[in-house]
Amino acid sequence: LTGDLEAARAIVQQSPGNSRLAATLGWLYLHYWERDWDELVRLAGSIPSNDTYFEGYAPFIAELAQYFRDGVEVARPVLQQAVGTVTANIEASPDSMNLLLWSARLHACLEEKDAALRDVESALDLASAKEGGAKMRAEEEAAAMYAAIGREDEALDILERLLVSHYPGAITVHQLRHIADWDPLRDHPRFQALLEKYAQEG
Q1: For residues 81 and 175, what is the distance between their CA atoms, to the nearest angstrom?
Q2: Is the pLDDT of residue 1 over 60?
Q3: Half-sphere exposure of 119 toward its Cβ, with a 13 Å CA cutoff?
Q4: Which has the closest alpha carbon to 142: 160, 154, 130?
Q5: Are the beta carbons of 75 and 63 closer than 8 angstroms?
Q6: Residue pair 146/175 in contact by the 8 Å Cβ criterion
């Protein structure tokens, strides 16, 4: 969370706790921060489809990595297939906040703004009944979706609120600086001011 990717890599290479789960999560996060999309796609694709912890998370990460690596037109067939899968899962579990957030992000990647807004609003309605980290992380994902579809001010309103909030795994200025989710905001004066303000406070 300090933004030191070399130190993070050294820690992950030690496989903290000798746990396969911890190591896999560590590498997924590290590749995402480093924007190593090829390795991220490879690692996510190596996770068994019946893994009870990762469930639909690994394919979603792989699809997102392909979008960042290849662009929307090349990744479109993969994203559209993913939307079909997530939509079917939502029909089976309509109260799944995570599925709705994933669907919103996929629609945003496909530049399907109305569908993305519909799903993120449904997810945030569900999140409003939750407490602590789960609610805040839903708002993080909503901010990334808003950024992706060009609703910069809504994304920044959420980020400004989250950066002064305290919750497990809270978003940091280092994530904003490194992670590709926030690239659509890079040139926005409010985003640049956030980076400068919290870098100084950190």
Answers
A1: 29
A2: no
A3: 27
A4: 154
A5: yes
A6: no
Rg (CA), the chain: 17
pLDDT digits (tens, 9 = 90+) for 35-93: 999 999 999 888 877 776 666 677 888 999 999 999 999 999 999 999 999 999 999 99
C-alpha to C-alpha distance for 6 and 33, rounded to whole angstroms: 11
SS3 130: coil
Pairwise CA distance, residues 36 & 41, whole Å: 9
Q: Which helix (H) or strand (E) holds 92?
A: helix 72-92
- The lowest-confidence range among 47-61, 153-167, 170-184 is 47-61
Residue 180 is which amino acid?
A: A
Q: How many CB atoms lie within 10 A of CB 88?
A: 10
Residue 121 has pLDDT above 70, yes or no: yes
CA–CA separation, 39 vs 145, rounded Å? 24
How many CB atoms sit inside 10 A of residue 24's CB?
20
Tokens of 22: 């911890």
Of the listed ranges 21-25, 62-66, 170-174, 193-197, the one predicted with least confidence = 21-25
In the chain, count H helices and then E strands: 11, 0
